[in-house]
Amino acid sequence: MSPMWVALALTVISFHQADEPDSWRLMVWNIQRGANEFDHGPEKALAVIRAAAPDICLLQESYDIDGDRPTLGRWLADRLGWRAWQGESPHLCVLTRFEIEEKRFHEPWHGVGALVKDEAERRALVYSTWIDWRAYLPYALRDDPDQSDAKLLANETEGSDRVKQAAALLEHLRESKALEGEYPLLVGGDWNCPSHLDWTEDAARLFRYRLALPLPVSRMMAEAGFQDTFRAVHPDPTRTPGITWTPLDRGTPEAPTPADRIDRLYLRNPAQGKKLRPKKAHVLPRTLEPMTIPAKNRQFPSDHGAVIVDLEWGE
Asked: Is the model's pTM score more than 0.85?
């Protein structure tokens, strides 16, 4: 590893130790276009993952790497000595050091899952997901702050297919018996919309482009019995916002980029048996790089921050 990537590793290292046998570390990361738009992007992504030391990575935009290499997730698995399952998806990937015991599939663009098993025979069903990017709500509010709440919420139901796609994923999980299964169920990815847990009255006073709104996608996940793992650890969005959009660009004074938490990991535990409990969570990169550095030369190779969640096993 070059000195540049050693410095990057020291910047993002999270001190997850192999001697923590009762915990798993999950990483949710949309690695922008397979890191192809960054100089040595795949190598930089590999350095970030090695430093963060996750057990499972739920990847989005695991595209073909420019040149003669495979998709990013498969290339990372080869370098790490791990396993990757991408199935028919052009970009969703489950990357893990654990055994992939069973491969699940939902839809090429919106869901790929796997049943994983660790050395202690503990299992969880994990899904990587991504839903529609169009009609991004924070931009809509920035560009027209006087519009009605109903018009804003229509971005989720009419301007995009986010609600439709999230509902289809939940229906798949119901039909496949995953919601009532015997193992913890983890669904993480790029939701391309904020959470109702972040758009609160207190947060609206602090953040310029937020309102207290009943945002439908995150509410659907909560109503289906899922816990937002980051907010379980950090319940106050004003103290720990957990921003993932975007470390790459802050916009301009005339059109600033609204900062928000659009990459999330959800957990639903079984009624009986072993369960996972969120105990720590943070976002990478911990420090934003100067805007004066051209995007392709940034050390963190994505426009999305990475979510890191430590979960502890128990009954």
From this structure: yes
